[in-house]
Amino acid sequence: MKLYHAMIWEADPTVPGKRVTVYADDLQEAKRKLEAEYGEGRVFNLYNEEDANRIR
């Protein structure tokens, strides 16, 4: 499992975003877990640091 980082935005635009982390096998699983907890369309900037830092 990998650690994924995300920014969660509330429906109220005056509420600042919340940084969260989740362990998952892949990006799709991480997104599913976060959407189940926070709601669809609220997950942004979802990434895994190891993957993000990998040379392309």
Present the secondary structure layout:
Blueprint: E1 2-8, E2 18-24, H1 27-38, E3 43-47, H2 49-53
Kindly summarize this structure in a few lines.
The protein is of the alpha+beta class.
Describe the structure.
The protein is an alpha+beta fold and 56 residues long. It contains two helices and three strands. A three-stranded antiparallel beta sheet has the order 2-1-3. It is globular, with a radius of gyration of 12 Å.
Radius of gyration equals: 12 Å
Which blocks of ≥5 consecutive residues have pLDDT under 50? none
Strand order of the largest sheet: 2-1-3
Tally the helices: 2
Keywords:
three-stranded antiparallel sheet; 56 residues; alpha+beta
